[in-house]
Design goal:
13 helices, Methane Monooxygenase Hydroxylase, Chain G, domain 1
């Protein structure tokens, strides 16, 4: 209920909220703050839960912005798209900072509640997987951990059926520079994006005449920003895990640090990175 009689500009700080929208009401804090339910009586489990829950909230916002940016790109509303991509980069920066807090937990403190996690693992985050799928790192096998949740598996599968954000960026690249899509390679819907020389050649043209292709240049640099922060997020994940559990297997059964280190080698927009060596 909205109180139409209260004017904060003239009435000062409100002290009574019967029948009015309060801060806690708007943010639904009762429900939000009741979702941290440790499975053990150890002190540090609450930190572990909150770090991962807040990361999921930031990922939700990243996906919201990436989805809107892709639609803006399709509509050729590039100013809106650039604003949204800039926000995604800042979200990834925020996700990076979260590891600093988690790293205050020592190996002994983590081991004290590790068994309470069972087979649950960040490897199973459907939102993280969706971010990878949207950006172009696509592997249908990564849907399997979500088979027990048909609704989540369907969301991920639906993303694989449409061009990624990078596919749409490449489409924009070819239409702008070539005037058609005749030479554009088919989108890699169900495999990780691999570097293609015809795509790199066009991005190179952009970088060799920036004033003539400013919009495409800005798009490329926004993508580099996003991948830069995304790589740092992965790297901070690796170092945090190694610091806390060493080279033990992860709770979800992965090889832990070894698996995460392999993920550091993944390139989302390889052509834009590769061209830097030939300029």
């Amino acid at each position: 209920m909205t109180d139409k009689t209260f004017d904060p500009a003239t009435d000062g700080a409100r002290m009574q909220f019967d029948g009015a929208m309060s801060y806690g009401d708007y943010l639904r804090l009762d429900g939000l703050l009741s979702q941290q339910v440790p499975q053990s009586d150890t002190h540090d489990e609450l930190l572990f839960i909150i770090q991962h829950q807040t990361s999921e909230l930031w990922m939700k916002l990243a996906l919201f912005e990436l989805s809107a940016a892709r639609e803006a790109l399709i509509a050729r509303d590039t100013p809106t798209m650039f604003k949204q991509l800039a926000r995604v980069a800042r979200i990834f920066e925020q996700l990076n900072s979260a590891w600093d807090v988690l790293r205050t937990m020592t190996p002994a403190e983590y081991v004290a509640f590790r068994d309470a996690l069972g087979p649950s693992s960040g490897f199973q985050s459907h939102q993280y997987r969706m971010i990878e799928f949207v950006l172009g790192n696509r592997n249908p096998n990564m849907i399997r951990p979500h088979d027990h949740r048909p609704d989540l598996a369907a969301l991920l599968d639906a993303e694989l059926q449409r061009p990624s954000f990078y596919d749409e960026a490449v489409r924009f690249l070819f239409l702008t520079l070539e005037g058609s899509l005749d030479a554009m390679p088919a989108p890699q819907l169900t495999t990780p994006h691999a570097a293609r020389p015809e795509i790199e050649a066009l991005w190179t043209r952009v970088y060799r005449d920036i004033p003539a292709h400013w919009t495409l240049y800005e798009l490329a640099e926004k993508l580099v920003d996003i991948e830069d922060y995304f790589r740092r997020w992965r790297f901070n994940h690796v170092t945090t895990v190694e610091r806390v559990i060493g080279f033990r297997r992860g709770t979800g059964g992965t090889s832990g640090v070894a698996y995460l280190r392999r993920m550091l080698e993944v390139e989302l927009f390889p052509e834009i990175w590769n061209l830097r060596s030939s300029l």
